[in-house]
């Protein structure tokens, strides 16, 4: 190693130049991403409330309080249920939509844009449309259930259905994103594999999907699941606009609890502790995605 610099006199200069070129990006990363995360982590170990002139060290007091807080556990449970419902449905429907769109001969660009429109729309505005659709008397969902003889309810005010109704909205919003990501994965599959499969006499749609499409979509599938799971963990808008965590905390989720504690009740340090828990879940999903993608890098 000592002789490496002697053999390559310009290596050290290149390394210094590389660090200097990367320095603005590193500083921006610290200012915009890592710095605030570290600040929130440190704040969660204090007893500071918004507006107070002094800040004291509380250690793990906020986390011990979280462990005894039934509202926190309810919000965590609701968040996990929301993710458990919305992610599989979004991924499954997104894959189906991608396969259908790619099989269309004409108008493919139109269908892609139509499916992606909910992702680009303002969810706060669309929440008002969904509020009308879930209306207990004149809403489209209620009318549809009545037309096929199924029982109806006040979807957003019934504790048994409110969280599922919000999950339906989340599925509708993220479906287009999952479809676009799967379309990118489908377009990356070599056509030669399908031709080779046809030469082997297995050219049916199911055989093409089972033997080629599904195995080759492995990395894309892991990426889509991770992205949709992170977006589902971030559910807040629909809760804040449509239910405000009700009825009876049936739709209380982590981000809504954090905002309530940190900005409505001004318990800033306690809200920071909830944020750290949220960041831990998000980091766990990201790490799992990285590990799984690395394992499936060769489409094994």
UniProtKB/TrEMBL annotation:
Q: Which residues cross the membrane?
A: 20-45, 80-101, 113-133, 162-184, 216-236, 269-293
Q: Tell me which residues make up the ABC transmembrane type-1 domain.
A: 76-289
Please state where this protein is localized.
Cell membrane
Q: How does it sit in the membrane?
A: Multi-pass membrane protein
> Main subcellular localization, coarse class?
membrane
Pfam families, from UniProt?
BPD_transp_1
Question: What are the protein's UniProt keywords?
Answer: Cell membrane, Membrane, Transmembrane, Transmembrane helix, Transport
Q: Looking at the keywords, is Cell wall biogenesis/degradation present?
A: no
Q: Which PANTHER family match?
A: ABC TRANSPORTER PERMEASE PROTEIN (PTHR30193), INNER MEMBRANE ABC TRANSPORTER PERMEASE PROTEIN YCJO (PTHR30193:SF37)
Entry similarity comment: Belongs to the binding-protein-dependent transport system permease family.
Query: Can you name this protein?
Result: Sugar ABC transporter permease
Q: What is the lineage of its organism?
A: Bacteria, Pseudomonadati, Pseudomonadota, Alphaproteobacteria, Acetobacterales
